Here is the input.
Amino acid sequence: MNTLILYIRHYTEWRLRQHTTNIEENAPSFPIDFGNENSALNNFIKHYQPTEAETIVLALALAPYIQPGIIDQALSAFVTKNNELPELGGIRGINHRGILPTCETAMFLLAGIDIDARLALMPLFSAEHFLFKHKILRYDDTRVNGDPPLSMRLVLEDEFAEVFTTGRVLKPKLSMNFPAQYITTPLEWDDLVLPAETWAQIRDIENWINHHHTLFNEWGMSRHLKPGYRALFYGAPGTGKTLTATLLGKFTQRDVFRVDLSLVVSKYIGETEKNLAQLFDKAHAKNWILFFDEADALFGKRTETRDAHDRYANQEVAYLLQKIEEFDGLVILASNLKSNIDPAFSRRFQAMIHFPMPNVSERLLLWQKSLPTNSLLENGLSLENLTSRYELSGASIMNIVQFSSLRALQRGDNTLSTHDLLEGIRLEYQKEGKIL
Here is the structure.
């Protein structure tokens, strides 16, 4: 880290000397020797083996996180406070008092004012260059109308800034700029109780996760198939849709993010598309699983276009469908009822998987798996009797077990009573508008 920051400082000072004086000297030596430094940054350099120009751009974006005044310090030796050097580019932040590099800053360091050299370097700032395509760097476009593209701020993505500076990556947090929340589970596949047909379809998704790279690349199907995989999970609440999505991520080493549609959908024209674009740009090429819970909010049956509001609502759905179809990972949409989803969307899903209410044998298994390990059942209490009499989802059974366990702990014993279990069942039925 120190080696790279020192290099970019010496390189900045060298370029400024070349620009402001007639002194001829060679640029700081490249490649950089990190020695035996065992760091995420060094491992990144070894893996990607960036060119000198790519290394300078990367170091310039990283510098504000390590040495915020590095550009100002170099500039002060060549330019007085009352003068500026427009060729250097850079902007001032709101709270950050130093110069923040722009693409123009990187271009100046690499090519000075040599027009031919600058034109030759333009592909380095293309969205197709691996530094931007792989979401290592991004542009923070704060330009006003008419500002040239290179005046955009050059930003290191948060995940790479985190791993380069601390050696670890924090998950993105739910916010207006990132409308999704990381979800995980301590449970295992054995804790999930589902019918055989549902299990088979879930295994098909797992097969896609494990083999789609081979299918696309080695088998040449990338010419015929769209990237990514889209699945609809539908069924009553509490039947395992969210848990299944989370377990798919857990056992294929992929992060799962549940999308908060309340943050995605905005009443302001254009904001919904902006929120969605930020989400998918962040998720692109990261092997994330995106889980849209209660997807009816956006994918419900479209209304007739009676006014501008209806037309814009349909436009939002069309945009989301476009982003989902472009996404190269797994997208799961969840709905309580298949009929809530517009039939026109059906062809866009590779899988539509039903999560039914558990049958009698499945409910018994859920009851058995849900009981605390150190609890006892009241004499005469039969799980088989509860199972056959009361139709409940897995989530409802867990709520009832928790309710009864807390009542037992309040009494100071470890016995689950018939009265408490029946009271828990009554409360669950009440939530659904049923009478026990």
Q: What stands out?
A: The first strand starts at residue 91 and ends at 92. Residues 173 and 436 are 42 Å apart (CA to CA).
